[in-house]
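Student: Send me a single protein entry containing the residue sequence and its fold in token form, directly below this note:

Tutor:
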Amino acid sequence: MYRHFPTRDTLLEAVYRTEVEKLAAAERKLAQDLPPIEALRAWMLLFVDYIATKQIIAPALNKLVGGPSKAYEASRAQITGAIHVLVERAIESGDIRRDLDPLDLLRALIGVSNVSSSPDWQQSARRLVDILITGSRPKK
């Protein structure tokens, strides 16, 4: 491993960056393969998995020299970009109401993950995805 990663810190950053890149790439693939609302739901479920992975490596990332902010800043742009694209597509299709802020969906999922002391937080977050999708539909 150290042939490719000279330090433990560079290995951790690479793992984190890879997870974020997978999430960003999933947006493009899901948008291509699924109807807008289904693509958004599927991506949000992947985001829950991403949060779980991030929680596993977060303690080590937080100990990086200079802190994790550099790694987090780059990931933030990719993640917010991905959800913005998916939400805009769902708005255009009429599946999601026009006043929805994509970041509200992320905040809700991140919020439930911050209660991760509960052993079933991930199942709760997955249920929350469906609640959020239902609540994001246009009013009739």
In short: The mean pLDDT is 83. The first helix runs from residue 8 to 33. The chain has five helices and no strands. The chain has one domain: 8-135.
